[in-house]
Amino acid sequence: MTLPLTTTKSEEIFASAQKIMPGGVNSPVRAFKSVGGQPIVFDRVKGAYAWDVDGNQYIDYVGSWGPAICGHAHPDVINALKAALEKGTSFGAPCLLENILAEMVIDAVPSVEMVRFVNSGTEACLSVLRLMRAFTGREKLIKFEGCYHGHGDMFLVKAGSGVATLGLPDSPGVPKSVTISTLTAPYNDIEAVKQLFNENPGEIAGVILEPIVGNAGFIPPDGGFLEGLRVLTRENGALLVFDEVMTGFRIAYGGVQEKFGVIPDLTTLGKVIGGGLPVGAYGGRRDIMSMVAPAGPMYQAGTLSGNPLAMTAGIKTLELLQKPGTYEYLDKITKKLSNGLLQIAKETGHAACGGQISGMFGLFFTPGPVHNYEDAKKSDLAKFSRFHRGMLERGIYLAPSQFEAGFTSLAHTDEDIDKTLAAAREVMSSL
Ligand SMILES: *Cc1c(COP(=O)(O)O)cnc(C)c1O
Question: Per-residue pLDDT for 170 more than 80?
């Protein structure tokens, strides 16, 4: 350790947590298993910063894993929530707020003509898969190695995020009979997808992907990859689904589909649209969405779905994002951060590669280039762990895994980026 970082209270709380919750956490990625050491227990968050229970302050590049795009606890969101709270926390009946957020999503996301709100990204992906199968009458699914679509059985095959971080084989408890219908291909490999379609004629319901990968580290699509998938799915009567749970309202207001001009049949959303409350959504073509109950026969439901507090946080967050200059600002500061990190790595003699689009970035300790999960796995994980620890000790909170993207927010200032780069220079010089 290079600097003292007092984490006595964090350690105490986490020790107790481990006795009463598996691994001491309610989501595996929060543990520091892959980087060593103990997780930091947060006390509060505001803007670009987080404070732990020992009073340490961090510049936060996790942003609650994506939702905090306007900065944590934005006063407009908090005030709207306070007002909504007075009207009750859950209705279990239709409310106008659902229409408002639905219209905002439909206006923003090119593929979405109708939308259904759920409570998490996992739920959105599970539901969209059922819909893909219901609509096509086919069972098989193509996903990509290192992509994460929540923890549904069908998706826990060569999955990213915590599965990749912990180096887990496919999870026990997932029946073979279920995963037998999940076909996988390397990301950015259109020929592999073509081959799967050829080997399974008339059997593939669709292709689901992170149109920019964030759950195997940050991996953008190669030119023509998304377009190629659009053509292949059409040719084979299969659906194209963009899982924009991470990228929706982050890469651009209308997501990757707006930015790259490739329009899928269906889209899943989460993270940013909840503004820090639990919201997921799936939507797409009207003819497909009309199959969802009670309009159609495909069943999917939720006691707390469309919850007034969650809708309020989502509406306020999207309103804030609509202000002119939002995505230009995110791109500007994140580019400065990403280019700075790469430059410092070069100057201090570390092989590294990475990049950013809008407020999403990644840095791999490998010469690269990284086109897929296999490439990402060539990263020097031990070096990443030391880098992570060094940054933490200097008040910079990065995702505790080489296989996760980083996020900036509208609250991150030029000065925050400068401080982060100064810390990175110190750490990389000593790695
Ligand atoms: C986070 C994420 C999910 C899962 O969302 P949860 O809200 O954690 O269930 C699904 N897909 C992608 C691309 C994600 O980044």
Answer: no
List of domains in the chain = 7-61+324-429 (3.90.1150.10), 75-322 (3.40.640.10)
- Give the mean pLDDT of 192-217: 98
Band the pLDDT of 219: cuts 50, 70, 90: very high
Distance 430 CA to ligand 1 centre (A): 35
Question: What is the residue with the minimal CA distance to atom 15 of ligand 1?
Answer: 246
Residue the block writes with tokens 């350790």: 1
Q: Find the residues whose C-beta lies inside 6 A of ligand 1.
A: 120-122, 125, 148-150, 210, 214-215, 243, 245-246, 270, 280
pLDDT in tens, 109-125: 999 999 999 999 999 99
Q: How far is CA 65 from CA 8, 29, 72, 329, in A?
A: 25, 10, 12, 20
pTM for this entry: 0.97
Q: Tell me the average pLDDT across 351-368.
A: 98
Which ligand 1 atom minimizes the distance to the CA of 122?
A: 9
Calculate how far, in angstroms, residue 270's C-alpha sits from the geometric centre of ligand 1.
7
**Residue-wise pLDDT tens digits, 365-401:** 999 999 999 999 999 999 999 999 999 999 999 999 9
Tell the residue nearest (CA) to atom 8 of ligand 1. 121
Ligand 1 center from residue 149 Cα (angstroms): 6
Surface-to-core class of residue 191, CB atoms within 10 Å of its CB (0-12 exposed, 13-18 middle, 19+ buried): exposed
Ligand 1 closest atom vs CA 270:
7
CA distances from 91 to 11, 85, 270, 275, 336 (A): 39, 12, 21, 19, 45
